[in-house]
Every structure is written in structure tokens, then in C-alpha cells.
Amino acid sequence: MTTMTMVIGKMTTSDKLRAIEEIWNDLQRTPKEIPFPAWHGDVLRARETRVQEGASRYGDWNEAKSRIREQTRK
After folding, report:
1. Whole-model pTM?
2. Which of 16, 31, 48, 49 gives 20 to 30 Å between its CA and that of 8?
């Protein structure tokens, strides 16, 4: 067991979530350094093709959230 694993094991859930947020914020400072699997690019290209062909469309995020919230209230 590594020292980091031991430290994480002693943290509260709240502390772990704060640590994740701090790590994510730090990673966002250098997005080009974050590796991603090749299949992510494949998925994005396929989605872009579907949009260009008219097979898919995307709406406003705020409108989508409103629709989702309305559905959960029912």
C-alpha cells in the first residue's frame, strides 16, 4: 500500500471530494497535457458527422436542464 493510498483511506468523504475538485482545477490549467484515448476522438468525429448529415442535433444546455428537471418533477 502506498503512502498516498493510506492518506486517502483516512480522509473523510467530504475531504476526498474537495481533493478531487482541487486536482481537477489544477489539471484544467494545462488541458493539452491531459491524455485521452484515441476512441474519444473517434466518438467526437462520428457525432460531428451525424450532425452534419442531419441525423443528430444538439440543443441549448440550459433548455435541456429545464426539460430534465420538469421530467423528474412528474
Report:
1. 0.51
2. 31
